[in-house]
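pls design
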């Protein structure tokens, strides 16, 4: 079984379901993110569903995300929705990731449907900004 299940969606949206809470799963996520950045332009929307596996190694995830965000094109945003069903772990994750992801929108959810809704709202906002 793969460490991740990847679901490609419309409008530069990508969903990853973590099957393992490991560094390997984090590395696979980062490799996919790097691929998306080279293959498409514009805002990038990512849903990270960690409910099946639990939280991946947080310090390692933070370090790898920081590297990717440093490479991101100025003027384009990465919208990240993190889904965890453990509210306490979600709070810890919020605090740690907000220290490195200051300029990029990150939201935390306990339900994947709400994460998808937030992504759709952010996409509509971006479309409205671009239409001006």
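designed seq:
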């Amino acid at each position: 079984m793969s460490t991740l299940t990847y679901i490609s969606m419309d409008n530069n949206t990508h969903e990853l379901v973590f099957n393992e809470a490991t560094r390997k799963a984090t590395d696979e996520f980062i490799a996919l993110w790097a691929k998306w950045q080279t293959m498409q332009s514009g805002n990038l929307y990512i849903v990270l569903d960690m409910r099946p596996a639990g939280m991946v190694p947080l310090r390692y995830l933070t370090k790898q995300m920081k590297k990717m965000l440093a490479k991101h094109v100025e003027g384009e945003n990465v919208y990240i929705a993190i889904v965890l069903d453990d509210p306490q772990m979600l709070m810890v994750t919020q605090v740690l990731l907000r220290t490195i992801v200051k300029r990029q929108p990150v939201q935390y959810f306990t339900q994947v449907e709400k994460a998808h809704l937030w992504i759709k709202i952010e996409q509509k906002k971006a479309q409205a900004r671009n239409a001006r």
